[in-house]
Design goal:
This protein has helices spanning 21-35, 39-60, 112-119, and strands spanning 2-4, 7-15, 68-75, 79-85, 122-126, 131-137. By secondary structure, it is an alpha+beta fold.
Length: 146
């Protein structure tokens, strides 16, 4: 584990195979447990990270095992930052349809970004959609004492 001014960094680099998502699940579950996140936050972060990883592998890298999905987990005392990168062409967040629109409710996909944004305290898209940065505070910023 590396140490930066921002905190400890754990890196994970996996081939783009959906069969390897269990590795991501194991790693994030252990990180959240070690950091002392509450059960609800652990479930939310786990879901968001699995969704981001699935998007990187399935949509970004098109499940090409020659392309890698890279994950960085930056551990701070008060928050966890997760950075997910893929080797795809990227996407425009504004062009992604809202899964809550009535015409999209029965579609079998399209909820990953919505779930990531709902479960995390902050989500940003960088490097024209090939990198997503997600932050979860141990206590939601709106609940933090001043």
């Amino acid at each position: 584990m590396d140490r930066t001014p921002d905190g400890h960094v754990i890196s994970l680099d996996i081939p783009s195979s959906m069969q390897l998502v269990y590795v991501l699940d194991s790693v994030i579950s252990q990180i959240l447990k070690e950091m002392g996140f509450d059960d609800e936050s652990r479930e939310q972060v786990n879901l968001a990270v699995i969704e981001a990883g699935t998007n990187a592998i399935k949509h970004g890298n098109k499940e090409d095992v020659n392309k890698r999905a890279r994950f960085e987990f930056i551990l701070n005392q008060d928050k966890l930052t997760v950075v997910v990168q893929d080797g795809g062409a990227g996407f425009d967040r504004n062009s992604v349809e809202n899964p809550l629109n009535p015409e999209n409710l029965l579609k079998s996909s399209g909820r990953g970004i919505f779930l990531m944004e709902t479960c995390m305290d902050a989500v940003t898209y960088e490097a024209p959609g090939t990198t997503v940065r997600m932050v979860k505070y141990k206590k939601s910023p709106s609940n933090k004492q001043k």
